[in-house]
Amino acid sequence: MAFAQEDVIRNGDFELATPGDTTIAGLPYWHMDKVSPESGVWGEAADRHVTIASDDSATLYQVVELISADSVRYDLSFSAGDAWNTGSVIVIISTSDADSTIRTPLVTDSLDIMTDEMALSVVFSQGTEHAGKHLIVEFGCTPEDPVEGSAYTNIDDVVMLKRLPGVNNPPIANAGDDQSAKGGELVTLDGSGSSDPDGDSLAFHWISTFPGITLSDPNAVNPTFTAPDVTELSSYDFALYVNDGQVNSDTVLTRVTVIPAGELIRNGDFSEKVPGSDPETESLKDVLHWNTDMPRDSLQGGVWGPMVTLASFDSTLYQVVDVIGPEAATYTLTMSARSSWDSYSVNTIFSVSEADSTVRTDLDVQENLNDIDPATGVNTCDYAKFKHVFGIEAGSVHAGKYLIVELDNIWHPDGEEFDDGWAEVNFVSLVKQVTSGIHTDRMAGITVYPNPASEILYIQGTDVTEIHIYSILGKLEKSIIRQNIQQVNVEDLTPGIYILKMTTQKGVLNSKIRIQ
């Protein structure tokens, strides 16, 4: 049977809220029967969500509408994220008379935050006994580990489709889970999860917007492509919509993260365990290729789900990645990270050591700031991608030493008795490029890297006050004039060969650079 549909949830993305008010009371259409000191509204209007806490004795709910006597189906869907210690999301569809604080549950489900689809449905037959009552949607949560305290769960994108018998219902596209692959590997996209509520057959339409990526068959359920050869961890989105013979579905996206074929980091997704260790181990000591100097029994962080969780109590998590050579080289480190609780930054560190990697000397430290609410320590955004570029000069005094990458979680000093913080990290990648230095005037002591470059060109050495970039035909493409120029954004330049003209206190230097 075909159905007509409409979304009956109001303010399901929580964009409507009283400015400056982070309480549920300032959120139109949503309610809690008791004032909550834990739950609240976070984020900017374009990306706002609600965080609920298991310690709350009341659920977050909305009175949706009056139930009619007609045959009707309601399909609820939403997104949920683990802010801290979430085991399950509790979803209740209930009814009430005029007083919505007195509710009768009709359907209750406990959805696992890691594995279950965040969805629930209820059907009312014609002439239902519930006709004339209020339909209500409620949300709660439970902790994964009660010993760790309350659960905090982010709720967003709440949609409830009301389906009435009538006209054709649009199909639903599903582009499959996000995935990763190394450059040069064959990748298979998966649209098999797409469906049509009316049972109609589907036509598939995949879209790739990236030059150089060609799908084997854009109209197949499972098209393939060869992952491009990249120089750093890169993400590519692919769009899918389906058609049931009458109308198109909404367009959905899936993401493929491509790992450089020349990757130096081993086990960058932390999925591999030390051979012989317990397959169920969560200890950082058992993550293959990674090390920490903390004793096993003292570690607070661990491996939970598809990421590693770093605790500010712990020493750095590190990996020996290379032996530094005599040539100039650029190392590009990328990672995805976010705060799970009260983490100010996940610092990335390039350090060196002799044979004993427990004795390290820091060479370069970069802060990678997390978005948190300072008052509560609660995370306010999803994973962010961070990049740390580090250059080694030709003939470095560190040649022959081990190069080490370290990850250090820094807590937000909020004045609590026990200052602590946790951060989640995934997809760590490191790519090395042997670079060219500027040797027009060796006394100038200037190094430009990376070369080739694709995004940022870094200037290291004597104070540079002017930079002019010319095409190989002599056309001026870009100019920068200011004191101590240390980097140039070259993303807007077409790939090719350019002449870099730099003015310093010692004169004018020229060099060829390649943009890729």
Any overview of this molecule?
This protein has 516 residues and is mainly β. The chain folds into four domains: 163 residues, Sandwich (Jelly Rolls), CATH 2.60.120; 80 residues, Sandwich (Immunoglobulin-like), CATH 2.60.40.10; 151 residues, Jelly Rolls (Sandwich), CATH 2.60.120.260; 73 residues, Immunoglobulin-like (Sandwich). The chain is built from no helices and 33 strands. Strands 1, 2, 3, 5, 8 and 10 form a six-stranded antiparallel β-sheet that branches. The chain has a five-stranded antiparallel β-sheet with strand order 17-20-25-22-23, with no helix packed on it. Strands 18-19-26-21-24 form a five-stranded antiparallel β-sheet, with no helix packed on it. A hairpin with an 8-residue loop joins strand 15 and strand 16. It is globular, with a radius of gyration of 27 Å.
